[in-house]
Amino acid sequence: MKKRVFYFALVVLSGIVFIYSCSKSYNSPTPMTTGAAASVSIVNMAFSPDTLKIKAGTTVSWMNNDGMTHTVTSTASLFNSGNLAAGAMYKYTFTTTGTYPYYCVIHPGMKGVIVVN
Fold first, then answer.
1. Partners of 37 in the beta sheet?
2. What are phi and psi of 107, to 5 degrees?
3. 37-116: what fold?
4. CA-CA-CA-CA torsion sign (66, 68, 69, 70)
5. What is the model's pTM?
6. Is cis: bond before 101, omega within 30 of 0?
7. pLDDT in tens, 20-67
């Protein structure tokens, strides 16, 4: 009888430890880590979203979902995709905090901003 009580207590205690460890991992917020990804769609002659807020170390992908060629060009000459045909993608990793405006060289009215915190 003592053996059964001991094993029962051991199983219950193991369950409590397991539940506690699971609750700690699921209840804590997950911070954004470096190496994260974000995306901007180029569609209807616009960058969507036109302003994107990210953490340093995030790689941003621009996907040309429009029916014509566009560029993703930094106003400070930090990055330049060159011509992106329909269906093409360009990626850039932002490592330093700051505000990075960009535009389409072919269609200068198309503008966007990446804000890195």
1. 59
2. -130, 80
3. Immunoglobulin-like (2.60.40)
4. negative
5. 0.70
6. no
7. 344 333 333 333 434 689 999 999 999 999 999 999 999 999 999 999
